[in-house]
Design a protein that fits this description.
CATH architecture of the largest domain: 3-Layer(aba) Sandwich
CATH class of the largest domain: Alpha Beta
Number of strands: 14
Strand order of the largest sheet: 1-4-3-2-5-6
Distance between the termini: 37 Å
Number of helices: 10
Radius of gyration: 22 Å
Order of helices and strands: EEHEHHEHHEHEEEHHEHEEEEEH
Strand content: 25-35%
Shape: elongated
CATH topology of the largest domain: Rossmann fold
Helix content: 25-40%
Number of domains: 2
Length: 312
């Protein structure tokens, strides 16, 4: 899969592309249905398939643009790296990551169609949801795309929502399930176990001093999960993870992911880990001293081992 970033030069040649557009945060069942439609259309027309996505998330951009940053942005479900890996696995030929900044946000709906879809991506087929909005002030809608499809000779297809138990599958629904600690519902909405990935960095070695060494993964943005969890770390086995601000010792401004592996004792510094969240044990707590903290961690480890004993 080819990944491109930044501005889109005008296309001069080529057969064009089957395109879809979105943030694709979480890469849930609805997103995968959209990608399946686009890759299928690309095979039918014998052209490439392309996803146009954004970094940062538009809502993150607009939240940062508020005075004092008071308007909260949604918790990010999926890092860009993970999103791209999932798109590659879905068979997408190309992803263009547009930088969502003031210049991009100011594009009118007409300019978005002409400069991005037509000249930039060479769109021959476009698949979006009926509620897709675009352009400055979200002025562009499906009806505008229908009119543009006739003018610019591309096919337009509306992809219906995917529902589960009568609820529309969406990033917001996944986020709500995770924030409520309902990992099973989140997994059903996603179609896969929720995970966070990142590179292990050096920490303060507090876990090692307490007898429970941890792999520390810095999080650039607050995730939709918090607390203590039973986890499975891809290629490294079962563990217990804490996602939080460490209120007992040296509280942090940004949440940290700390993973204690139950049966792995090697050096993990610099390795890229994928941490899959299986069950929430409890919320993060502040303890009176390190003795109480150590006792709580030991109890979490016992419960995690019991979980894996029950689930084989």
């Amino acid at each position: 899969m080819v990944v491109t970033h930044g501005s889109l030069p005008a296309r001069q040649t080529g057969r064009g592309q089957a395109v879809t557009i979105g943030n694709f945060d979480g890469m849930h069942r609805g997103h995968r249905a959209l990608l399946e439609r686009v890759t299928g259309k690309a095979r039918e027309l014998k052209i490439g398939s392309c996803v146009l996505t954004f970094e940062p998330h538009p809502r993150e951009f607009f939240a940062g643009g508020q005075a004092g940053g008071k308007r909260a942005s949604p918790a990010r479900l999926t890092r860009l790296r993970d999103k791209l890996e999932l798109m590659a696995a879905a068979g997408v030929d190309r992803v263009h990551v547009a930088r969502f900044d003031a210049r991009f946000a100011s594009l009118s709906a007409v300019d978005f169609i002409e400069k991005v879809l037509v000249r930039g991506l060479g769109t021959r087929s476009l698949a979006v949801g009926r509620d897709f909005r675009f352009g400055h002030g979200r002025a562009g809608d499906y009806a505008a795309l229908e009119a543009a499809a006739g003018r610019h000779d591309f096919r337009l297809e509306s992809v219906p929502d995917v529902t589960l138990d009568g609820e529309r599958v969406s990033s917001s629904a996944v986020r709500a399930a995770l924030q409520a600690g309902d990992l099973r519902r989140a997994e059903r909405l996603l179609g896969h176990t929720y995970s966070i990935s990142g590179r292990v960095a050096h920490g303060e070695k507090l876990g090692r001093d307490l007898g429970f060494p941890t792999a520390n993964i810095a999080l650039r943005r607050p995730p939709p999960v918090s607390g203590i969890y039973v986890v499975e770390v891809q290629d490294f086995g079962p563990g217990v993870a804490s996602v939080g601000r460490r209120p007992t010792v040296n509280p942090l401004a940004v949440p940290l992911l700390e993973v204690h592996l139950l049966d792995w004792h090697g050096d993990l510094y610099g390795k890229h880990l994928r941490v899959c969240f299986l069950e929430k044990l409890r919320d993060e707590e502040k303890y009176a001293d390190l003795v109480q903290l150590k006792e709580a961690i030991a109890h979490d480890v016992r419960r995690a081992r019991e979980y894996f004993a029950r689930h084989g």
